[in-house]
Design goal:
This protein has 218 residues and is α+β, with helices and mostly antiparallel strands. It has 6 helices and 9 strands. It has a 5-stranded antiparallel β-sheet, with helices on one face. Strand 2 (63-75) and strand 3 (78-85) form a beta hairpin. The longest helix has 18 residues, at 198-215.
Length: 218
């Protein structure tokens, strides 16, 4: 976190020192997920249950419920809240840009001593974890040009380059091949090929075939 903060401060200072170039500095838009970040942090610090009003993308109406906040995670410009649903009694992950309201309650909670955010997200590419997908060895073949991008910005901390020649490189990763990871692989187009595991190769092949069927129409 200290490294992240220092990097962020360094960038912020650079931008502030060059405000005269504001029309020539193009930044990515960040959704409104940080609106309630202070409230969530306060709840975590005080060990107080949160009451949030939430509207998922797949639901017609919002719902209000209580959550014991365990941790937050930043991924792809979105903040996510990981907490124990008081009603369900299980850990859930909430995208904070879908939180309509959040407030502290007087109800206390005890942060479980056996919960580790790092262990909870072990092997995860992003924030998808609870779909039952285990950690597997994924082997991918990437052409020489695209391999440069993967070296400078690895797909996952476990990524290792096990083979390299003039035409391609092979990388192995210990990761959960969840939906978000599969989407990232597809983003590389025909520059990347999944070699192992077989089920993942077949899964992506099926996705590519369905995409072809969408476009192969007159």
């Amino acid at each position: 976190m200290q490294r992240w903060l220092l990097n962020s401060m360094s960038v912020s200072n650079t931008l502030l020192e060059n405000k005269s170039l504001s029309d020539r500095i193009l930044l990515e838009n960040i959704p409104s997920g940080q609106d309630f970040l202070d409230t969530v942090m306060a709840a975590m610090k005080k060990s107080k249950v949160l009451e949030i009003t939430y509207k998922g993308y797949w639901r017609e109406h919002e719902s209000t419920f209580r959550v014991a906040p365990y941790c937050v995670k930043l991924f792809r410009q979105r903040w996510y809240l990981v907490g124990n649903s008081v009603y369900e009694g299980k850990i859930r992950i909430y995208s904070m840009d879908r939180v309509l309201e959040a407030k502290l309650t007087d109800a206390p909670f005890s942060y479980p001593k056996d919960f580790s955010p790092e262990v909870y997200f072990e092997g995860c590419f992003g924030v998808i974890r609870g779909d039952g997908t285990g950690i597997e060895t994924v082997k991918i073949k990437v052409n020489a040009n695209q391999a440069n991008y993967l070296r400078s910005l690895p797909l996952h901390p476990s990524q290792k380059e096990t083979e390299r020649n003039a035409d391609h490189s092979i990388f192995t990763l210990q990761v959960r091949p969840t939906f978000d990871f599969q989407q990232e692989l597809l983003w590389n187009g025909d520059a990347l090929e999944v070699l192992e595991p077989l089920w993942l190769r077949q899964e992506l092949a099926g996705t590519v075939k369905r995409m072809w069927n969408h476009y192969n129409t007159k």
